[in-house]
Amino acid sequence: IADRREGIGVCGWILISLSFLLVLITFPISIWACIKVIREYERAVVFRLGRILSKKAKGPGLVLILPCTDTFIKVDLRTVTCNIPPQEILTKDAITTQVDGVVYYRIHSAVSAVANVTDVHLATFLLAQTTLRNVLGTQSLAQLLAGREEVAQSIQAVLNSATEQWGIKVARVEIKDVRIPVAMQRAMAAEAEAAREARAKIVAAEGEMNASKALKQASVVLAESLAGLQLRYLQTLTTLAAENNSTIVFPLPINMLESFRQKNTGG
Length: 267
Fold this sequence. Notes:
Layout: H1 9-25, H2 31-34, E1 35-38, E2 42-48, E3 51-52, E4 61-64, E5 70-76, E6 80-90, E7 96-107, H3 110-115, H4 120-136, H5 141-146, H6 148-163, E8 168-179, H7 182-223, H8 226-241, H9 254-266
Antiparallel strand pairs: 1-4, 2-3, 2-5, 6-7, 7-8
């Protein structure tokens, strides 16, 4: 915004001179009407005869205002929280969801916020709603659920580019909740359960395969030593006896079976 002091005309300078004269005549009473206190987190945009006095807002501290010719608007520079109500959105894969979020922004240029838009907070709120619907409409449900951070960053970038001329800086965008229909929740739960059962069957099959390979290797080792087979037999009997069951096991020496086999062969 250009400095327009030279464009106020002769009447404007006359009015400003009369305002100064009025302040001098009524001094020191008029000083209380001319001095305004601006807080640390505020800035004042001063209008003189309807024109913005300076490219930069005044404050913080004391600001001198001429009576009758000057007016000012205070602008709060603190971060504002904009709560976006639940928006009904149709995702890319044709699923209806309700999404709500929150936007954190602040005013970094008080002059632009006053001169370029009627109500900067209402404009930012409505733009955040529209941007949320537009950006999420290009995402699938899986992308929305798994990539919230990326979606929030996309919304923040769009808002920053659109509100730059309003003097707004969007600090952060967060997606709070994603609500999907009950029927879709049941379908997703059934799909997840089926996937878990399939993985469990695969793990069980891999375990059976590894066990069969181990048994094969053990049989090869035991076939090479009869004493090892006998020790394994005795270890199995010890395991069965320690379980406190009603099964009675009668050990039969393998040598006796071998002698019977030799007699049958000789006969």
